[in-house]
């Protein structure tokens, strides 16, 4: 074979081999890859590339702290309110403890700070949309709260049930707001409360007996529209300060009031519609400093047991239908005779003794508008006679002579006179911040 023929034959064989390899590569990519791998790697699976590593997901961020949760609640609340006094103008930044009206403290058994109290007194908050400003969204959202004081705002609606589960919630002041309806039942289920202030709202209906079984120190419900009789267990309350003034309570003052002898310090019943005669058990109130039943429909003589009110300083029976003589033993009480006050104005008393006359001259005892012959500014004889013509004796008249104590206090006792000024009368001012 000549040289040219041999060259042509070699070219044709080489071309055929290349065409065959191309066809195989096109029909089997795996083969191509395998072959390339054999060529590159030397023909073994031991040198196959490692599969890609799956990295674990990043850890979740830590849960927000108690302070951060409270901060978010406060800022959300601020977006819903009208703030006419710019109360919340410094509510910015990461630390809610620096917000106006916000109190912080260490959470019990922890080093963590928490919002322990809110004091929005006289802020004047209302709802930005013009609708009712509810307590949900603020009172129900900070479980670390120990107190909530919002005197003189425009809160309304129901009290959130969540407060019954707050472990350290001691003080609730919703005075001078827009609460309506009956006494808020959820207050009765709160086991930690010591201070309840619902005065100056529009609450109606009776006061539930459960209120007086609660371990409260202060009950202020004056200036509402509560009505009906006081519950029979009224005296079960351990409260020291009670203001029931300016409501529509009716019926007699319960004789169980004597059960509160160890705690009751000040009680205001003025400007209601109480009727009947006073129970002699009032004389058991050995710690009472203030007792005010003025402007009611009460009647009968002053019980002789009042001689046992050894701490009393302010005794007001004015503007009722009390009658008879004024007990000298009451005028001897050290808290009365030593810069105290005994007010019997506008009744039907007829007689005073020398010790009471001494208090009249010193202006400690006020007796204008009665039926006491010989004293100025008394009712007319005709008015007094008409009253006596229709007067009815007390059903408990037999008990009004009982004196359940031995009068052992010395005449120069100054303990009552040195007692602090009364706090309950300040509850009659709607915008009062705190009463204690």
Automatic annotation (TrEMBL):
The name of this protein is: Cell wall hydroxyproline-rich glycoprotein
Show the InterPro entries listed in the entry.
Answer: Leu-rich_rpt, LRR_dom_sf, LRR_extensin-like_regulator, LRR_N_plant-typ
Query: Which superkingdom does the taxonomy of this entry point to?
Result: Eukaryota
Transmembrane segments annotated in the record for this chain? none
> Which residues are in the Leucine-rich repeat-containing N-terminal plant-type domain?
71-105
In what ranges is there compositional bias, type Pro residues? 49-65
Question: Is-annotated flag, keyword Acyltransferase?
Answer: no
- Provide the alphabetized UniProt keywords: Cell wall, Cell wall biogenesis/degradation, Glycoprotein, Hydroxylation, Leucine-rich repeat, Membrane, Repeat, Secreted, Signal
Q: Where in the cell is it found?
A: Membrane; Secreted, Cell wall
- PANTHER family (alphabetical): LEUCINE-RICH REPEAT EXTENSIN-LIKE PROTEIN 3-RELATED (PTHR32093), LEUCINE-RICH REPEAT-CONTAINING N-TERMINAL PLANT-TYPE DOMAIN-CONTAINING PROTEIN (PTHR32093:SF131)
């Amino acid at each position: 074979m000549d040289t040219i023929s041999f060259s042509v034959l070699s070219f044709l064989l080489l071309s055929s081999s290349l065409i065959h390899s191309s066809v195989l590569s096109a029909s089997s990519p795996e083969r191509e890859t395998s072959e390339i791998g054999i060529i590159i790697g030397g023909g073994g699976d031991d040198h196959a590339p490692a599969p890609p590593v799956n990295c674990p997901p990043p850890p979740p961020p830590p849960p927000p702290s108690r302070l951060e949760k409270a901060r978010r609640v406060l800022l959300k609340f601020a977006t819903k309110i009208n703030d006419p006094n710019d109360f919340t103008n410094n509510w910015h930044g990461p630390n809610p403890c620096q917000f106006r009206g916000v109190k912080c403290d260490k959470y019990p058994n922890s080093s963590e700070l928490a919002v322990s109290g809110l004091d929005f007194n006289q802020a004047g908050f209302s709802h930005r949309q013009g609708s009712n400003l509810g307590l949900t969204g603020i009172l129900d959202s900070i479980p670390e709260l120990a107190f909530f004081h919002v005197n003189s705002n425009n809160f309304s609606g129901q009290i959130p049930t969540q407060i019954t589960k707050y472990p350290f919630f001691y003080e609730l002041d919703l005075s001078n707001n827009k609460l309506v309806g009956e006494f808020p039942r959820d207050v009765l289920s709160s086991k930690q409360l010591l201070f309840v202030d619902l005065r100056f709202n529009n609450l109606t209906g009776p006061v539930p007996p459960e209120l007086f079984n609660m371990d409260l120190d202060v009950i202020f419900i004056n200036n509402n529209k509560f009505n009906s009789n006081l519950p029979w267990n009224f005296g079960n309350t351990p409260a020291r300060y009670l203001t029931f003034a300016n409501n529509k309570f009716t019926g007699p003052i319960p004789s169980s009031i004597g059960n509160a002898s160890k705690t009751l310090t000040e009680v205001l019943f003025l400007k209601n519609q109480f009727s009947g005669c006073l129970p002699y058990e009032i004389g058991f109130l050995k710690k009472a400093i203030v007792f005010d039943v003025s402007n009611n429909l009460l009647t009968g003589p002053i019980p002789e047991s009042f001689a046992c009110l050894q701490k009393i300083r302010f005794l007001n029976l004015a503007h009722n239908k009390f009658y008879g003589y004024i007990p000298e033993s009451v005028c001897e009480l050290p808290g009365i005779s030593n810069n105290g006050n005994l007010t019997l104005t506008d009744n039907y008393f007829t007689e005073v003794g020398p010790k009471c006359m001494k208090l009249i001259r010193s202006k400690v005892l006020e007796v204008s508008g009665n039926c006491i012959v010989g004293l100025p500014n008394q009712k007319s004889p005709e008015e007094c006679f008409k009253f006596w013509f229709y007067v009815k004796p007390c059903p408990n008249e037999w008990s009004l002579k009982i004196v359940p104590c031995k009068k052992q206090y010395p005449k120069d006792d100054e303990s009552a006179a040195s007692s602090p000024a009364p706090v309950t009368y300040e509850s009659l001012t709607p915008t009062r911040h705190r009463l204690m």
